Amino acid sequence: MLLKRIMFVLVLLVSLVAAQAASSLEEEFNAFSSEQMEVLQHAYDVGKPFNLGYTMAAIAWQESRCGKYVLNLQDPSAGVFQNNIKSVMARHMQKDPSLKDTDFQRNLMAQKLFNSFELSAAEALAELEFWITVRGTGNWFKIWQSYNGGYWADKPDTKGYRQSYQYATEINAKVNYLIFRNVLEKTKLETEGL
Question: What is the model's pLDDT at position 130?
């Protein structure tokens, strides 16, 4: 009997936490400006051909509040998808060996990401495609975790792991919110999340 009561209380607590999170997402979503809604839809549209529509929309939401905050000096990262400057520079230097990783070039890249949704989206897609290759198609939680934390997602008991785990949890909640609220597209549901 005691076990049943404990289980009931646990289920009740989990339900309350889930309801609180859904309410918070609802409030945040409802506060978006028309420009933010356009960014959210555009992020979805760019990702959809790669089965990454909801992921791209959720990342734009999580990282920059759909274009409201496009610069993070702590990482540093820039753009709607908060592309990590070091990662972007590394990808570009692979394509163009004459490009050097200098303060000036990093600042220039940050400015380009800041100014260009298309560049930020292309870099986010490249990063996601890399992690899909590493983590395996359909392993969404680990892919989202790696988008944020890289290989820290493989190192439990570290701050990087905990942060990237929290990030993936938040992306998952946003993906599911967008799917179940049917706010982006009214046709077939993609297989992301859930």
Answer: 97
